Structure of GH16 domain-containing protein:
Amino acid sequence: MAATSAAARGARGLLVLLLAAAAVGRVRARARPGEVLIWNDEFDVLDTRVWNHLVTASRGFNDEFQYYRDNWRNSYVRNGVLYLQPTLTAEEFGEAFLYDGRLHYPDCNLSPCVSEAGKDIVVPVQSARIRTLGSFGFRYGRLVVRAQLPRGDWLWPAIWLKPVDNAYGPWPRSGEMDLMEARGNKKLVTAAGVSRGVDRVASTLHFGVNKTHRSWRHTTWEMALPKGEDFSQAFHLYEMHWTPRCISFAIDGRVIGAQEPPPGGFWKLGNLDHNPGGKDIWADGGDMAPFDKPFFIVMNVAVGGRFFGDGLVNSPHPKPWNWSSPQPMRDFWERRAWWLPTWGDGGQSALKVDYVRVYAPAESNGFADNACADADARANAARHAG
Ligand SMILES: *[C@@H]1O[C@H](CO)[C@@H](O)[C@H](O)[C@H]1NC(C)=O
Ligand SMILES: *[C@@H]1O[C@H](CO)[C@@H](O)[C@H](O)[C@H]1NC(C)=O
């Protein structure tokens, strides 16, 4: 395990800084002047004391098609790279199991714990979601993740942050910060022909009162690669710089979006005093509330779900399910000839993570003038996808 939090916490001065940089080896991401590495994982092994597996049959808010479990098939390290790899339920349990089976893992840690054939089939996919919940959380700093995205239809990789304490209440009251979300499809477009495939990634801040009274459209930013390129072809650097004065996202060093503490706070920014309004739930928090408390890191690969709306157009094969069907997972599974070949082999359908690093100012006042000041950030923020 390469986590150096204890060493880095005591780090002071340039010499220690240089040693830290040398120790982490491949210096594609490195501390900037005045910064120290406060936490990292280089994935020499998958340390389950650091990364806690979510084990659940819950299909999230988005009706996804996977069971998240703690199994070497779905999460492992190979050659210094972490793989989060979705697999087929039928591969281990047989096809008939999907139609008459009952899947339950005893180490389940979030209910529901059972996926059972009934109105729809048993979840057709097994996957992994790992978190630093209980081992590492941070408030403010620069998070850098070097990752290669999965390619394959209906895969939904994510690297994101969730609040440690839910100080303002359950989701989405205490906020959510999405460093990277993408869709693995090679050719997926909106009705207007705009790509929603693996050539594009998004970073997003989520906040609000509940599932219906919330906001993210003002705080989502995208980046698309030039035609012919996509994020599954190579490793890229996904970066979030979070200070008390600014949250900015960058890919390969290029800022794609930035948000300062808005006048009136995130309540005003999200237009939450309208439709239906109510009391500003962050009025007693800081300017950045709810993004002024510690968050932990989450990484996963989901499959299917409402992130793939019925309005999206896939080719060469259409979307194998729709959201008016009583059995979306069965529709998805029985049309696997359309999507399974796109998953490839040899880890193509895995989210691959080389490292996760978190930097913070060496001095406690180091965040003082870190507003979203640089012109690049402003320029990019101004033309973010509203
Ligand atoms: C969500 O919050 C709003 C504002 O407080 C409230 O009016 C609405 O009833 C809530 N909706 C649900 C589903 O709880
Ligand atoms: C949705 O899927 C169901 C089940 O496959 C199908 O019967 C129905 O025609 C589909 N609806 C639309 C609008 O495509």
